[in-house]
Write a structure and sequence with these properties.
alpha/beta; Aspartate Aminotransferase, domain 1; Aspartate Aminotransferase, domain 2; 7-stranded mixed beta sheet; 4-stranded antiparallel beta sheet; 13 strands; about 45% helix
Length: about 375
C-alpha cells in the first residue's frame, strides 16, 4: 500500500477546478435575521391559517418514498391552463427559473458555434439578471451585455448591432427587467425580437414579475404567432408567492421545448414542490389578492419616495423599486445609506456596483404596509 498522502484540498482546487470558477464569487445571500427583509423581491404575505392547515394535511399525504410521477404532468397541464398557453406550445418545468436558464445554456453549449467557428454567445441588456451571464460562463458560452440607455430603456441600435455582429445563440429580454423594474417599449421589443429571428437566435422572454406587471408579452405572441416561432417565455412561481418552493416554467413551440426537455434531469421537481404548486394554483384567487395588495402598496411607496428630497425614483412594473440616493463627496453614498438602513433593521439591496448605470442605486422590495412604513422611516433617517 502506498504511503503517499493525498493532495491537499488547496492543491486539488489548483489542479482540478476550472480557473474561471476559482475567480468567480458565489451568489451572496444576506443574513435577514432580525431584519425587515426587503432585499429579494419576495411576496411578503404568508398563507392564511386555514390554507396553511389544508396544505399541511395535503403534504403529509404525499408519497415521499416514490419518485415524482404523474402529478408532475398534472402540474404542467395546470400551469398551461393558468397561463393560457398558446396552441402548438409545450411547457417544461425547472427548479426555479435559475435551473431553466442553466438548461438553456446547456442545450446551446457546444465547443464552437457550428457556423461562426467560436463559442456560442448569450446576449442580454445590462444591467440585468445576473444568472444570464453566470450560467453562460459556467457552460462555456460567451456573454455579451449591451448597456441600456441612462433611463434604462433598450438601446435598440446597439442591440441590433450586437445581434448582427455576434449572432447569439440566446437573447434574453427580462420583461419587466431586474433590477430596474421597468417594461421596455413594445416597439423596441419588436425590433429586437425581429433582429434575433434574422440571426437565427432563440429569444427568451423572462416574465418573472408578471403578477405585478401591467402587460405580458404573451399577448403579443398570441396575436402574431408567425413572428415568434423562435421565442420562449419563462415565468416563475417565486413572485407568485412561492419563492421557497422553487418552481419555474418555460413555454414555447413544441419542437424547441422538446429539445430543452432532453437535458432536464428526470426528477428535477420534487413531489413536495409539485404538490405545493398545484395547491397554489387551486387557490390562485388568494395569491392574486396578495399581488393586488402589493401593487397598491407599490403605488403608495412610489408616491412617498418621490416626496424625499434629492432621491431619484423610477417607475416600476414589478414588486421592487429602484432609487438613486444623493451622491456624497468622498463617500460611497449607496453603501452608506444601505448600512444606515441595516442598522435600523431594514434590509434592502445595494446594486450600485452591479453596473456603472446603477451608480448610487438601491433596490427596494415592496413589502406589507407596515414593512413599507418602516422602510420609509429608515430611508428618510439614513438620507
Amino acid at each position: 500500500m502506498s504511503s503517499l498522502l493525498p493532495p491537499s484540498p488547496q492543491a486539488l482546487v489548483a489542479r482540478r477546478i476550472r480557473a474561471d470558477v476559482q475567480a468567480m464569487h458565489a451568489y451572496a445571500v444576506q443574513d435577514p435575521q432580525g431584519m425587515v427583509k426587503l432585499d429579494a423581491m419576495e411576496n411578503p404575505y404568508r398563507l392564511s391559517a386555514e390554507l396553511q392547515s389544508a396544505l399541511g394535511a395535503r403534504l403529509g399525504a404525499v408519497a415521499l418514498n416514490r419518485y415524482p410521477g404523474v402529478r408532475v404532468q398534472q402540474l404542467r397541464e395546470a400551469l398551461a391552463q393558468y397561463a393560457h398557453m398558446p396552441a402548438g406550445y409545450d411547457i417544461v418545468l425547472g427548479n426555479g427559473s435559475d435551473e431553466l436558464i442553466s438548461l438553456l445554456s446547456l442545450a446551446c453549449a457546444v465547443g464552437t458555434d457550428r457556423l461562426a467557428g467560436k463559442p456560442p454567445v448569450v446576449l442580454a441588456p445590462v444591467p440585468g439578471f445576473v444568472m444570464y451571464a453566470m450560467s453562460a460562463q459556467l457552460q462555456g458560452l460567451d456573454f455579451v451585455g449591451v448597456p441600456l440607455t441612462p433611463d434604462f430603456a433598450l438601446d435598440v441600435p446597439a442591440m441590433l448591432a450586437a445581434i448582427a455582429q455576434t449572432q447569439p445563440a440566446i437573447v434574453y429580454l427580462a420583461y419587466p427587467n431586474n433590477p430596474t423594474a421597468n417594461l421596455w417599449s413594445e416597439a423596441d421589443m419588436a425590433q429586437v425580437v425581429a433582429a434575433a429571428a434574422q440571426s437565427g437566435s432563440l429569444v427568451v422572454l423572462d416574465e418573472a414579475y408578471q403578477p405585478f406587471s401591467s402587460r405580458s408579452y404573451l399577448d403579443t405572441i398570441r396575436a402574431q404567432p408567425q413572428l415568434h416561432s423562435h421565442v420562449l417565455l419563462m415565468r416563475t412561481l417565486s413572485k407568485f408567492g412561492l419563492a421557497g418552493v422553487r418552481l419555474g416554467y418555460l413555454m414555447g413551440p413544441q419542437a424547441l421545448v422538446a429539445e430543452l426537455d432532453k437535458v432536464r434531469p428526470p426528477y428535477n421537481i420534487s413531489v413536495l414542490n409539485c404538490e405545493c404548486a398545484l395547491f397554489a394554483l387551486e387557490h390562485a384567487d388568494a395569491f392574486a389578492a396578495q399581488a393586488q395588495a402589493i401593487c397598491e402598496e407599490r403605488a403608495r411607496l412610489l408616491h412617498a419616495l418621490r416626496q424625499l428630497p434629492d432621491l431619484q425614483v423610477w417607475d416600476s412594473d414589478a414588486n421592487m423599486i429602484l432609487v438613486r440616493v444623493p451622491a456624497r463627496a468622498g463617500q460611497d453614498a449607496a453603501q452608506a445609506v444601505f448600512e444606515s438602513m441595516r442598522a435600523r433593521s431594514v434590509l434592502v439591496k445595494n446594486v450600485s456596483k452591479m453596473h456603472p448605470l446603477l451608480a448610487d442605486c438601491l433596490r427596494l422590495t415592496v413589502g406589507t404596509a407596515l414593512e413599507n412604513t418602516q422602510l420609509l422611516a429608515a430611508l428618510k433617517a439614513s438620507l
